[in-house]
Design goal:
Forms part of the polypeptide exit tunnel. InterPro entries: Ribosomal_uL4, Ribosomal_uL4-like, Ribosomal_uL4_dom_sf. Part of the 50S ribosomal subunit. The chain contains seven helices and six strands. The chain is α/β, with parallel strands linked by helices. A hairpin with a 5-residue loop joins strand 1 and strand 2.
């Protein structure tokens, strides 16, 4: 069972805890991670791009020149795809790219991502993140104290306005709650900072 040191907001060690081996010490399934990340990125797509086919481009109803006798290639319309200003072959149309991945695959992928963070020493457990006021400077001070990478995912147990808004101006920092974490965010950010209470929520939900 993997062990990890818990630190406070000043970066000082507080205690050592054991992580749930069913979540933080499994055989990493890279294919499941790939499937889930692909699914998340597909669901993020707006699907609003559109182009006109030759039937939708205005004009081109008259044959540009007669079929035979000109020495040129036969043409039926100046809106054919090979013409400048013509329609697009297999033009993209608005569509919904979202789909679902099986729940079992999503759970395996999440556990694999969390396990990789533990093995790469990129997980930081903080006893509590408490912001008395909305101040980005104090949040950055906390990140530096716990020796976090500039690109960090901060996970807390419940929605805390002071914490969320203190981090909102930091481009490479994302704050979320334990029940909203996903594989893409875990892998995207170099440091995975999580509070003790949020850790318990993760273990309860995904064990």
């Amino acid at each position: 069972m993997p062990k990890i040191q818990v630190v406070n907001m000043e970066g000082n060690p507080v205690e050592e805890i054991e992580l749930n081996e069913n979540i933080f010490d499994i055989d990493i399934n890279e294919h499941a991670v790939y499937l889930v990340v692909k699914n998340i990125l597909a669901n993020k797509r707006q699907g609003t791009k559109s182009a006109k086919t030759r039937a939708e481009v205005r004009g081109g109803g008259r044959k540009p020149w007669r079929q035979k006798g000109t020495g040129r290639a036969r043409q039926g319309s100046i809106r054919s795809p090979q013409w400048r200003g013509g329609g697009v072959v297999f033009a993209p149309k608005p569509r919904d790219y979202s789909y679902t991945t099986p729940k079992k695959v999503r759970r395996i992928a999440l556990k694999s991502a969390l396990t990789s963070k533990v093995r790469e020493n990129e997980i930081i457990v903080v006893d509590n993140i408490n912001m008395e006021e909305i101040k980005t400077k104090n949040f950055v001070k906390m990140l530096n104290a716990v020796k976090s990478d500039k690109k960090a995912l901060v996970v807390i147990s419940e929605n805390d306005k002071n914490v969320f808004r203190s981090a909102s101006n930091l481009a490479d920092v994302k704050t979320t709650t334990a029940d909203m974490i996903n594989v893409y965010d875990i892998l995207k950010y170099n440091s995975f900072i999580i509070t003790k209470d949020a850790l318990k929520v993760v273990e309860e939900v995904f064990n």
